[in-house]
Amino acid sequence: MNNNFEGLDILSVSGTMDQPIPDWLTNDFLRQCLQKESGSEEIVVTNHIITPVAPPGNNYGSFIVRVAVEYKHSTDDSATCSRSLIVKSELTEGDIKEMFDNLSDLQQSEYDFYYKFLAKAEKLIDTGFAPKSFFSPMNSVTILEDLKESGFVMADRTKQLDFDHCRLYIEASATMHAASIAVHKEDPHLIESMGREKMFRPDDPGHEMFVSMIKGGLEVFAQATEKVEKYKKYAQVIREVIPLLWGLIVDAHKPSDALNSFNQGDPWTANMMFKYDELGNVSEVKIIDFQCLRYASPINDVVFFIWPSANNHVKSHRLEELYQIYFETFNNKLQQVHCDERLTIEHFNECLEKLSPSTMFLVASFLPLLIHPDPVDFGKFSTKNQENSEEIVLNYYLHYYNEQFCREHVPQSLEQLEKAGVFKHLEYIIKKSRK
Length: 435
Hints:
The chain has about 425 residues and is α+β, with helices and mostly antiparallel strands.
């Protein structure tokens, strides 16, 4: 512990229980991080200050801190330099840690993304969609540039993203997807091992959390739907698909028979940062989280991003335009990295349809949690040693399905789901399941 934190044993980190500052986060650890970058073995770190990196509710699965480092290029140097780093490591306690205990490869996947995948990808294409990384002495810890120093900020997750923000992410995502296809040709094992499914796995004990979210979120969404006269006919569809949804989501996220790439896996507002020009217009984006990488259809990322993160105007009026931008950017980037593969309109639409169950899950179970100002207590979705767990989950969702959410989002979401053909496909699935 450095002297600036003498007597301070706990650092409050957003979205988690209080986490102890790791013992390994020392001046010597930081010296090793900066040594390779500076090109000087004589570099000396004289001090460092640790602060939380994000507001509550914007980070759940990692311990992330900002570290302001003071250093000299040698012991004889009188000048002191400074640099801000982002240090990202695994959680040490709390409900989220317990849920992710069996997914020890979360941090390893992100480490490999920065230190192995990007090293190959940057030879083929501009990898400006991701932050710059620094040397890390530990393969469970990722050291990144502090994008805040370059003017990047996190968008307000409660307001969702307008079209210009969405366009930038869609273009960046398409670039990453295309780059991964090119790298896969060179090193398929790297891509497929890093892209092992981490979220939607039936063999993962943590899947009980998702099943709990499906049951609670969809039931409360159905209750809210019954109060919207124009769309109340869909309440029964929502309820009937509940027992089928988990299996459908698992199947939808398996590698496709046609075209597969890296997926970011968890592309929502808090996992990206934006930069703005002098007039306040958004101009750049950086994707900042790669823990949940999967190797599957790239359309998974498109769907996962849009439904919780794009605002209602985008989803109601500019969805097709956004799809077209992705389609064209992805194919152009594939050509740029000298890959013959192309995304077809037919495959794109087939994937959108196959992902209808995921779309329903994102709208009913994720959207109300992700745009609410209160941090989510994921412990509520744990069924382990918890009596009346279904009732607890239902009551918890009712907090998020408040009057404002039901007024501003439920009718719009129902209209959007109908227009996108989600209900039609779910009705087909339900009918098929009865045979």
